[in-house]
Amino acid sequence: MDPSGIRIVLVAPSHPGNIGAAARAMKNMALSELVLVQPKQFPHPEATARASGADDVLTAARVVESLAEALAGCGYVAATTARDRDQYFRVVDLRDAALHLVAAARRSPAAVVFGAERTGLTNEELESAHALIRIPASAAYPSLNLAMAVQVVAYELFRAAGSAAVASAPLAAPLATAQEMQHLYTHFAAVLEEIDFHDRTQSGTHLMSRIRRFLQRAELDENEVHILRGILTAVQNRRRTAGSAPR
Question: pTM of the full predicted structure?
Fold first, then answer.
């Protein structure tokens, strides 16, 4: 079994050599779908040279303008980080994440997202993920080169794909796509505004981020998203009916 159905997404990679090396790492581990979000230099001779036999992966790589476009059609999404993040993000062990990704990819496309070499992923970019992956490394120097990080993750995905636990696990309903989840969040924000429910914290800016994160952790399927949006629509309709009633 190979870990097909798992998309490797590189956000704003700055060095073309890393793109080529990442493609090689992917081919080593039976991965083939590479998506680049606003790469600084691509195509590029150095990328081709570093691909070293993985030209097919590199040639098939898609270049897109946004992370949302890169994740279109995906269900489960994991994002990599080398830094401590807000406590409300779920951080999972790489080996556990690989098992989850391979199992999820049996239902619908899944993705692993890597950030730019120097800056990594922003908190806003991380909000598209169901969980964060931190690759175990020395506390004295935990930051891996981008291509090396892809190699480590790809190896764990390949290893997980041969797991009997994944092969025997029952299939569940596909997760809602990133686009469907974004529609839910937009709808949620609109209803909160209509009912005048605002963040009561001192900064007053974290409510929707908290809502996004606990719903991402819930790993909703498409039907569950429809249920929640149906409830939100009912709230809107009830308010409009009440607002039109004579006083």
Answer: 0.86
